[in-house]
Amino acid sequence: MSASLIPAGMAVATHYLDLAGVFSSALLGGAVARTADLDLFGFLVVGIISGLGGGVIRDVLLQHGTPVALTDYAYLVTAIAGSVVVFLIKISEESWNRLFTALDAAVIGFWAVAGANKTLAAGLGWLPAVLLGTVTAVGGGALRDIVLGRVPAVFGRNGLYATVAVAVAGVTVVCSYLGVPQVGIGLGIALALVFRLTAVHYDWNLPNGLDWQPHSRLASTVRRRIDPATTRNKEEEQPHPPKEKP
């Protein structure tokens, strides 16, 4: 895999996609902070973690230098700006929910495309690009939820959140291999918006744990294999047949 799949001019587009993802994610973090009734400092912390978390995880895993969020001040400033906007603006909960869903879809597109392109530009192959594109998209939100003591929304009942990120990163990688990375940007973001909004509207979700249960005999066999001592005890408790007299 060669870094030539991503033209030099694409670095600028990826940079702005990164910043767009930071701002949108910080807005979402601020919305969650408002729901949790946090103060200004809480807004800033949650917004910065939400805005920068996914990108920092990506850059650390790439081991391609210091995470860009620590070297380019625009990232931190953008995350703070998104947090402050939500701190200052108060609108109805219904309006926030509509905005939250749209921003959520946009964030998936921005981050998944940027993460996949950065991974390809670092010289890695298609599988790491899809993986890190997905991690970039969902990492900040997962860290935000962990900090707030919640089960990360990406783990279930989330309108195919991670699935959309995988699909967008995959489309971005395919377009790069076909020599049209610019098309991959537009197509990836459009796919994120359509796929995510449709999944939320129709309440599409991946299945939870299935209710299938093995046959009782199979379950008994498994238990005996797991705890052979129990089997020995049961065998010892069974009466032995009387010995025949000679």
In words, what does this structure look like?
The chain is mainly alpha-helical and 246 residues long. The protein has one domain (3-201). 73% of the residues lie in helices and 0% in strands. The chain has 10 helices and no strands. The chain has helices spanning 10-35, 40-62, 68-71, 73-88, 93-121, 126-147, 161-177, 181-201, 216-226, 228-237. Helix 7 packs antiparallel against helix 8. The N and C termini lie far apart (82 Å).
Question: How much beta, percentage-wise?
Answer: under 5%
Spatial shape: globular
State mean pLDDT (0 to 100 scale): 84
- Main β sheet profile: none
List keywords for this structure.
246 residues, single chain, 0% strand, mainly alpha, 73% helix, globular
